[in-house]
Amino acid sequence: MRAEERRARIARILREQPVRVEELAETFAVSLSTIRRDLQLLSDEGAIVRTYGGALSAAPGEQSLHEREKLALAQKAAIAAAAEKHVRPGGVLLLDAGTTVGALASRLASWTGITVVTNGLTTLDALAESAGVELVALGGAVRHISLGMIGPIAESALRGITADTVFLGADGVVAGRGVCEGTAEQAALKRLMVEQASEVCVLADASKLGRAESHWWTPLDRPWTLITDSGADAGRLAAFEARPEVTVTVAAG
After folding, report:
1. Among 121, 188, 187, which Cα is nearest to 138's?
2. What is the b/e burial string over 83-100, where b = at least 16 CB atoms within 10 angstroms of the residue's CB?
3. Burial class of residue 136, CB neighbours in 10 A (0-12, 13-18, 19+)
4. d(CA 94, CA 118)
5. Where residue 46 sits, what CATH number does that domain have?
6. 70 and 45 belong to one structural domain
7. Domains in the chain: how many in total?
8. pLDDT of 181-232, one tens digit each?
9. How far apart are CA 246 and CA 211, in angstroms?
10. Which of 133, 175, 195, 206 has its CA 20 to 30 A from that of 52?
11. What is the pTM of this model?
């Protein structure tokens, strides 16, 4: 296979889901250094975005929630199962918007005696018919691309609530810095969620680790738990494991 054809195929693969360097090397039966050169050339052309240990497509603009729902389904399911272990009977939970947190919401549908407060329409849909779950919508302006509610109405409602645990999603998460999002309003609401919760869990598949393409940040300067999937290699996890405030959970599966 010619190098140009291989790079074109790599770009097509990355449009479906983020992939690690090792996986690409195995797929094309070439060395890691060859794949890294391919990724660098594709990155220079603006076709992809390099991440720690891999790459993802540089599709123009933010992916819609419906597009993201099709990505990393097994990883999100595993993360959701691990996150459910942080839920306690009678607890009050804050669930962020997003597909990974939405996977957790689906698992909570059979619970009774818990309260779920959310800005995510995905979570509202998953729990709307769950009679055992007290479901609270924060309100606010809806971002149609992510189906999350943001802005001063959501923030005002949240200030009157304290939660046992918050489950955050993110565009990216960086050790020692926090989670990033595409807009200032999203980052601001996440900051307030962190302030209002006793326990903080960030649900992020391996492709999100070390990723910092979005420009608005929610700092995580208190103890928190990172729940990720088994696709996160040792190198990608090392930066988080080195931080005393971070507990790392790698979901099985």
Report:
1. 121
2. beebbeeebbbbbbbbbb
3. middle
4. 6
5. 1.10.10.10
6. no
7. 2
8. 988 999 999 999 999 999 999 999 998 999 887 889 999 999 999 999 998 8
9. 17
10. 195
11. 0.75
